[in-house]
Amino acid sequence: NNNPEVISKMFQDGMLKLTGKKNIKKSWESVFRYFNTKKLNKDKSYTKGEKIFIKINQGQSRWVLNQADKDNGFYVPKNLTNSQADERRKRDMIPTENGPYVVLELLRELINEVGDAQEDISIGDPMCPIWGHNYEVWAKEFPNVKYIDKNTTKFGRTQIKLTETEVLFYSDKKTKDKLYDVTVNANYLINLTTLK
């Protein structure tokens, strides 16, 4: 029960209010310039060819989808049994994570307004598969965006991998971790949160 036009307008209005700009392109230029000034101490906006990773939340897909669902394109199952496993899945089936339309608007703005090439954008949740219904909406309009998955290249997904060495160091000065390459290789990471 989402109205894509209303969601798009809300997203656009939010960007314009956040930046005080008169159009979406100038809003994004302002956001990228602010980020680069703060992080890199450079007064520059987005440059074509830079990589953007849109990190979405698809956490439920990891435990709600069984192997058959994953082998069928990561879609929400249409029929569930009364088994104990399916009872748990029924309870957890109500998605409380990114749906397709906020992400679609973000893609439209980055590609159509900012001028980012589809091939320079990766989207997904490094730990969990993208739901099939989300992928359908996004890939229909933007087939060349990289829709990531850590386990497969099936169903239009681009497989990601962990870095060979640890690149994340914790404040205890002992703990360190590897990260997925999509995160390390991105010039910009947009963490598209899900507010509940």
Notes on the protein architecture:
The chain is of the alpha/beta class and 196 residues long. It is built from eight helices and seven strands, in the order H-H-E-H-H-H-H-E-H-E-E-E-E-H-E. It has helices spanning 4-19, 24-40, 59-64, 67-71, 84-92, 100-114, 132-141, 181-184; strands at 52-55, 121-124, 146-149, 157-159, 168-169, 176-177, 188-191. The radius of gyration is 18 Å and the shape is globular. The mean pLDDT is 90.
For this entry, give a set of tags.
single chain, 196 residues, alpha/beta, 5-stranded parallel sheet, two-stranded antiparallel sheet, 8 helices, 42% helix, globular
Layout of strands and helices, then pairs:
Layout: H1 4-19, H2 24-40, E1 52-55, H3 59-64, H4 67-71, H5 84-92, H6 100-114, E2 121-124, H7 132-141, E3 146-149, E4 157-159, E5 168-169, E6 176-177, H8 181-184, E7 188-191
Parallel strand pairs: 1-2, 1-7, 2-3, 3-4
Antiparallel strand pairs: 5-6
Helix pairs in contact: 1-2, 1-6, 2-6, 6-7
Strand pairing plus helix content: what structural class? Answer: alpha/beta
Quick check: average pLDDT?
A: 90
Biggest sheet record: 5 strands, parallel
Parts with pLDDT < 50 across at least 5 consecutive residues: none
Report the count of strand segments. Answer: 7
Shape: globular
Number of helices: 8
Amount of beta strand: 5-15%
Helix-strand sequence? HHEHHHHEHEEEEHE
Percent range of helical residues = 40-55%
User: Cα distance, first to last residue?
Assistant: 16 Å
Rg, alpha carbons: 18 Å
As laid out across the biggest beta sheet, the strand order is: 4-3-2-1-7
